[in-house]
């Protein structure tokens, strides 16, 4: 459906855009991602939604709404780190690795060496 864009779709859009890597990026661990500049992410979401007063506090409220819906979960013990837990691979037709490759994310080798 082409209704108004949802926050998770917006985040995904940023995550697959190389020019956005400085403020939001994949961690390299599956569908996990980090908001390295949460304020910038919130600012852009505000522009998209025509809400100039958007801030990270409001954006994170939107993210929390997803926890119960099992769309996005917070990664415990890490600031600004979240993970898509819905079946994105099915929705998008891409694996996490394929999306990582789109933005030239270098796989982190330390885990499987």
From TrEMBL:
Gene Ontology BP term (one): cell differentiation
Keywords: DNA-binding, Nucleus
Keyword DNA-binding: yes
Localization annotation: Nucleus
One Gene Ontology term of the molecular function aspect: DNA-binding transcription factor activity, RNA polymerase II-specific
GO cellular component term, pick one: nucleus
Superkingdom, taxonomy of origin: Eukaryota
Domain ETS positions: 5-85
Entry-linked InterPro entries: Ets_dom (IPR000418), ETS_fam (IPR046328), WH-like_DNA-bd_sf (IPR036388), WH_DNA-bd_sf (IPR036390)
A Pfam match: Ets
PROSITE patterns the record matches: ETS_DOMAIN_1, ETS_DOMAIN_2, ETS_DOMAIN_3
Major location (coarse): nucleus
Family: Belongs to the ETS family.
Protein name: ETS domain-containing protein
Annotated organism of origin: Daphnia pulex (Water flea)
Lineage of the organism: Eukaryota, Metazoa, Ecdysozoa, Arthropoda, Crustacea
């Amino acid at each position: 459906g082409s209704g108004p864009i949802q926050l998770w779709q917006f985040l995904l859009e940023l995550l697959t855009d190389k020019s956005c890597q400085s403020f939001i990026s994949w961690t390299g661990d599956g569908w996990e991602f980090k908001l390295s500049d949460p304020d910038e992410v919130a600012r852009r979401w505000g522009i998209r939604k025509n809400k100039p007063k958007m801030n990270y506090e409001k954006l994170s409220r939107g993210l929390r709404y997803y926890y119960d819906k099992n769309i996005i979960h917070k990664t415990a013990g890490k600031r600004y780190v979240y993970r898509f837990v819905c079946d994105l691979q099915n929705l998008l037709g891409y694996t996490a690795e394929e999306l990582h490759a789109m933005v030239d994310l270098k796989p982190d080798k330390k885990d499987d060496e």
